[in-house]
Amino acid sequence: KILILDFGSQFTQLIARRVRELSIYCEIHPYNNPPVIDETVKGIILSGSPFSVRQEDAPHYDFKASHGTLPILGVCYGAQYMAHFNGGEVLPSSTREYGRANLQYIKKDNPLFKDVPEGSQVWMSHGDTIASIAADYEVIASTDSVKVAAYQISGTQTYGIQFHPEVTHSIDGKQLIQNFLVDICGCSQDWTPDSFIETTIAGLKEKLGDDKVVLGLSGGVDSSVAAVLLHHAIGKNLYCIFVDNGLLRKDEFESVLESYKHMGLNVKGVDAKQRFYDALVGLIDPEHKRKAIGRVFIDVFDDEAHQVQDVKWLGQGTIYPDVIESVSVKGPSATIKSHHNVGGLPDFMKLKVVEPLNTLFKDEVRKVGKALGIDNNILGRHPFPGPGLGIRILGEVTQEKVRILQEADAIYINNLRSAGVYDKVWQAGTIFLPVQSVGVMGDERTYEHVVALRAVESLDGMTADWCHLPYDLLAKISNEIINNVKGINRVVYDISSKPPATIEWE
Ligand code: XMP
């Protein structure tokens, strides 16, 4: 495997993605808490950083401990660090170097630049520049304005590059990363969904033996893929619980339960609708609603889990971005992100946790799911929040509002599907607004509810833009909703991006 030591760059996860796209396994660790370097580690990549090496609180890492024995690639800050603290000097650039540049000089036959042509476009993003390097450092690439765009420490496999090969604007970045990983580190490209599945199932078998595992299915991609992996490993010892909280989409509970059974999972569907509705009476504040829904879920789940004799483990669909220890950009101390899946275990469920997907990114989970043969109606599903329609009904949640919203939402989603845009949209949903407005139907004046339609494009939900859905499609959806869903006389479309808005309204 490859170790990526993170100095807090926004691009660190992107480096990991590029490595894994080459079918090579890698892990991200904070620079100040690296794991033990054993013989499984084939090379180290040092990330960029929002810090400057000239800052007093610049993050430090003892690269000399591995330098000379393991290949090292320093990217941006990583490169500046190894130059500055080893006989060279890093200074502020006279102009900030941002954006496209071209490698006018590339040293012939340097293995890092194999099949990278002279003139190749690279992406720069830095305020400092490497002004001088020690005598045993050799410049292996330059741009017009950056002489030390890349260096190698002579006689070693230690490299530094000032540009970002991990972003797609660096046209030959992937080739360069491959050169480092395959030719220099000697990695073999055999980390594939199939090999992941094979080793994960074997590992789960060994870890779990004859133990029983309970797992909460949500209908989403992560919990479903986690369940299928566990199912392959321990079969009927996996007890899946799928709770109907009364806040799912129309008919979703029944259809997803059916898919799970079809997949051979040992799954129990639990109708707990009323418990959730009861807990939501009188609640208006979104956070209060979230807490109530979360609390009831834990109670229901716990009741069900207690019915499984001698259960030892809780299975979870936690994925890698939730567990990566992030380096705080405010100070060089490592902090751990808080997330609803991490540490969210109630004390009274004294179960050990098994998380088969906690080394995978979301797109990798989908690939693994595909290789496992999981149905596309589960793998291709839009993200859906845990509290479900509970946070898409603004204000107090009632069963009647849920019914109305489910009807409107089903019309919306079905239309997205039949127009062929469902898969192009990252997430879509309908929001029940806490207002009534005047309308006219036939000769009668109406005074009914309003729903908003939301559809966004996004990569990871952190930022998002509203989808420019065709007007004709919006018109058709609006008509269908108003004509078919009693209680709604107005439909609006949300044209806000995130930030400053969020994807959900609550
Ligand atoms: P926001 O509204 O914060 O949403 O832009 C970003 C993504 O997170 C989902 N979301 C949640 N998921 N529990 C969840 O499991 C929640 O309380 C929650 N709130 C928002 C949202 O659907 C979107 O995909």
Automatic annotation (TrEMBL):
Protein's job: Catalyzes the synthesis of GMP from XMP.
CDD domains: GATase1_GMP_Synthase (cd01742), GMP_synthase_C (cd01997)
Signal peptide stretch: none
Domain GMPS ATP-PPase: 191-381
One family name in Pfam for this protein: GMP_synt_C
Protein name as it appears in the record: GMP synthase [glutamine-hydrolyzing]
EC number: 6.3.5.2
Highest rank taxon of the organism: Bacteria
Description of how the protein assembles with itself and partners: Homodimer.
Catalytic activity, reaction form: XMP + L-glutamine + ATP + H2O = GMP + L-glutamate + AMP + diphosphate + 2 H(+)
Cellular component annotations (GO), alphabetically ordered: cytosol
Naturally occurring in which organism (per UniProt): Mucilaginibacter yixingensis
InterPro entries named among the record's database cross-references: Class_I_gatase-like, GATASE, GMP_synth_C, GMP_synth_GATase, GMP_synthase, GMPS_ATP_PPase_dom, NAD/GMP_synthase, Rossmann-like_a/b/a_fold
GO molecular function: ATP binding; GMP synthase activity
